[in-house]
């Protein structure tokens, strides 16, 4: 982001947003309605309670697929969750069951899935009723007072309790959370944070703020400050070489370069700002993304990490845990700072990186996804920084089981953060995926229906229905790519909306009012690693559609009975294309055609948009060590005496949204039309 962009953004927001704009500018808490010195600063927008937003259209289908897949069944066959020590079993007793609950709770409550809700309530009952009198949960070692114990799993479990309390209002769960936080407060006096807890301290602030806002106990904010003091200062860490230097292949695993820690930590400035509302936190959040994009950025809005930060090369992987954690961080960042760029990035990750790493039926997933990924095989010759040979398989627990337990939060938390409340009794759209909202403004019911196939379409229809006539602001995020965006209220003339800003409609809403939004999606070409080009349109990135051959592997390993098996995927059609495209006029050689959004929206056959492009195969571009080989710019340059791009004819090729692919090429060498 240039300083000019940032300045114009701040001006536009300040002009349109009233009190909420102040959060973007980092004013003191006293500037906010409801905020007070020494208290928690009020965020720009507050998430609605879990269940006030329900998925609709393709998003409802996606959540149903998820509940019918691994997410809704993991506890039934995977010992690390089903027989977890958290639930009285003898299997893993650390992060896996809390991770699963962290996604399964919002999934079950958003779908109102009775059987899943009942099982989850049973697990929560066990955790709460087996909490020890000293506040520690049952997996905590009995001799913990004399032994070091990494606080990470407790930070995570407390976040789960906060979410369950939000969903159910169960007062026992809030009490259990407060007791746990009290025990942590005493525990940190004895043993300061170290290892995972030290690098993930800010996760604790989520549950502490929840408990504080329900109890107003001042010691809770002291605990938050203790965590911040004892934890890693990521805002300073980003000023050093640890973040910028890519981890060498087969390199050294480091806490400071760990991709999941990094993705989680991007929300640390937002959480810190609520304790200490200084402009520096807002600035450092933006700076963290500038640094990550510059050194490790991927076209999906993610950064590489396999599983340590690994540079911009599109064959380096990104761990699935980092994808879902970055989404959660971006939801916090938009909520606290009200900066639409965070919601732009949230959509980019949600619609591209999230579905790409999970099979269309959501029974198998990858540990590491690659932006250029023509095949996924067990690969001893891999070039990951620190991961193993199975990291890009689609499977039950490829490489390691953290993503198996943690992937579930991605879609459900996205749904519950689609819209948020403004500080002045209004409502704001973070993203335009289809949903239905039932909430209260000015203490009266208001419903909002969002009918759309966005991001596969440009049009969004929003119907606002208050239960009585009332005046409130409705804030629309206008994506930065959407030049020429318009909104039409009922039969009024359409009004323009500025791209990259928040568009505020303040009016008296009376009966059902239909807003017709249009976000023009134009093809764009971005230049990336090794001067390769990527095709983008609206929030979607487009990849070469490659025929797939799936082969089952590891069938003899435990718990791999279908449908939760492991698979290799190989290309059944050519993949080694360069793209013939005019970067200044990409529309001249790219044609986008709308298709019905499939029953499985993120599958090759279900793609809601298909593009045709022109490409030329590059014979020299082959699989090397199991991955797409690397082509230097010289390899594809016009002057190359080997003329690699001229030995094949120009063909019409099909591109589909990145999130619909399982294997893909996304960053294409750019080749010319002819030898002239
Ligand atoms: Zn993981």
Task: Please render the helix and strand layout as text.
Elements: H1 3-17, H2 19-25, E1 46-47, E2 53-55, H3 57-68, H4 70-77, H5 79-82, H6 96-111, H7 114-129, H8 152-168, H9 171-190, H10 195-199, H11 202-215, H12 218-230, H13 234-237, H14 241-244, H15 259-265, H16 268-275, H17 279-296, E3 318-319, H18 320-337, H19 340-356, E4 368-369, H20 402-406, H21 410-416, E5 419-421, E6 427-429, E7 435-441, E8 444-451, E9 459-466, E10 470-477, E11 486-489, E12 495-496, E13 502-509, E14 513-518, E15 523-527, E16 533-537, E17 540-544, E18 548-553, E19 566-571, E20 577-580, E21 591-594, E22 609-617, E23 623-624, E24 627-628, H22 633-636, E25 650-657
Parallel strand pairs: 6-10
Antiparallel strand pairs: 1-5, 2-7, 3-4, 5-6, 7-8, 8-9, 9-14, 10-13, 11-12, 11-14, 15-16, 16-17, 17-25, 18-19, 20-22, 21-22, 22-25, 23-24
Helix pairs in contact: 1-2, 3-6, 6-7, 6-8, 6-21, 8-9, 8-11, 9-11, 9-12, 11-12, 15-18, 16-17, 16-18, 18-19, 18-21
Description:
With about 675 residues, this protein is an alpha+beta fold. Helices cover about 35% and strands about 20% of the residues. It has a seven-stranded antiparallel sheet. α18 (about 320-335) packs antiparallel against α19 (about 340-355) and α18 (about 320-335) runs parallel beside α21. The longest helix is centred in the first third of the chain and has 20 residues, at about 170-190. The protein starts with a helix and ends in a 19-residue tail after the last strand. About 55% of the residues are buried. The site of zinc ion (ZN) has 6 residues, from α18 and α20.
